[in-house]
Amino acid sequence: MEIKLCGIKFKNPIFLASGIMGDNAGALKRIAINGAGAVTTKSIGLKPNMGHKNPVIVELDEGFLNAVGLANPGVDNYIEELKKIRGFLDKIGVRIIASIYGKDEEEFKEVAKKIEPYVDMIELNISCPHAKGYGLEIGQDVDLSYNVCKSVKSAVNIPVFAKISPMVNIREIAEALCNVVDGFTAINTVKGMVIDINMKKPILSNKFGGLSGKYIKPIGVRVVYELYEYKKPIIGVGGIFNGRDALEYFMAGASAVQIGSAVYFRGYDVFNKIYKEIKEFLDKEGLELKDIIGIAHE
């Protein structure tokens, strides 16, 4: 199931999503040796960020609500982690996607230029729903989103994908960005809240958080389906726990998928498991992966 995205070869289309097991070189290595075709970093900003105070995560039956708040060590420190792992990942054919964020186009551009030599692609986080002044607050502003994407695309020579929130007008944002990015990642988490009925207040210190897991898969599939008409490569993400989930995204129009919450629920080798489940379906149907991408539109 080898694929090409924007001229880059991936040994398979099952990637690690940003936000889980992407904090350091050791975590990325563990994911890589368990079958991921690419690893996506934790969202990295220009300077270190402590994020929100605890509690920052609530475990649900089939997912999570988190408000980590884009906690990260800053791009200069994170590059040191990438230096430790880049040679090993190249050797085993696993690509690196850098998820980055900033408060405006200048910050995004500076982070992108710094991290470009150490990664294969850049994913712009304009969709995190729980970081004040960042993420979704940019993604909801079409003009600002356009400026961010255009600025980064003009500053680097590697593919640039915009990570889209389901809580925006998909057609409006896609039409604005389709000429200034190489592709889309869809979706990010969905803004939500959990209240402790005994304490009578929200559990998360930030009150609101990003909902992930099985709950959001139908939303993610819908957004990928809508984006497909813009003829840009799409990486589908949100609630993918098994091969059947991934196949829905492929049939909606995704060329690759990212796995997040399922790492916790099915183990580090979830990438190998999902690969086998997809392959079994394709072999049974007498199909190749390229045959089903976007097939739900026919």
Automatic annotation (TrEMBL):
GO terms for molecular function: dihydroorotate dehydrogenase activity. Binds 1 FMN per subunit. Its cofactor is FMN. Keywords: Cytoplasm, Flavoprotein, FMN, Oxidoreductase, Pyrimidine biosynthesis. Transmembrane segments: none annotated. One of its GO terms (biological process) is 'de novo' UMP biosynthetic process. The keyword Oxidoreductase applies. Its EC number is 1.3.-.-. FMN binds at residues 18, 42-43, 125, 163, 187, 213, 238-239, 260-261. It is found in: Cytoplasm. The keyword Oxidoreductase applies. Gene3D superfamilies: Aldolase class I, Dihydroorotate Dehydrogenase A, chain A, domain 2. GO terms for cellular component: cytoplasm. It catalyses: (S)-dihydroorotate + A = orotate + AH2. The active site is at residue 128. Substrate binds at residues 42, 66-70, 125, 188-189. Pathway: Pyrimidine metabolism; UMP biosynthesis via de novo pathway. Belongs to the dihydroorotate dehydrogenase family. Type 1 subfamily. Catalyzes the conversion of dihydroorotate to orotate. NCBIfam families: PRK07259.1 (NF005574), pyrD_sub1_fam (TIGR01037). Heterotetramer of 2 PyrK and 2 PyrD type B subunits. This is Dihydroorotate dehydrogenase. The gene is pyrD.
